[in-house]
Amino acid sequence: MVVESSELFAGDPDGMERLWTPHRLVYLNKDDDRSRCPFCVAPERSDEDGLIVHRGEHAYVIMNLFPYNSGHLMVCPSRHVATYDMATPEEVAEIGSLTQIAMRVLTTATGCVGFNLGMNQGEVAGAGIQEHLHQHIVPRWPNDSNFFPIIAKTKAMPRLLGEMRELLAKHWPSET
Q1: Pfam families of this UniProt entry (predicted)?
Q2: Which of 47, 72, 121, 148 is deepest in the core (most CB within 10 A)?
């Protein structure tokens, strides 16, 4: 991680620190995929490029691009469907099964001791992407939160997304 002090810039310092995140350039570049649902685009890519940990028959497991914690996963139906009540019984069953497996994999691979699970459906409920159903699985550890996000508006992430995806995919059981 590279953090630059504004004191190194020409002109008057503005007091802001810069956290360089070149991996987010994809959100600034204009391409055809920007207007499409990211949960529909991801499965069209390789697992590495799409940050997909596991593909099932009706649903898949993907890394969250804006994680609350390292290992923050989401389980999405493969079909573009907005809410849980619109999902088929097969999709609901596989989302539940993949959630259980993901919790076991995260526990084994990362040593987490708890989880936050949740689905925000609809804009008023806090869904960042409301058009495509997804369930969050956030691993938790003792003392995993601190003042940094509040004071510095920065979340310290000990592992890169690609590294975490590789670790979790390696631990995913082959018989699922």
Answers
A1: HIT
A2: 72
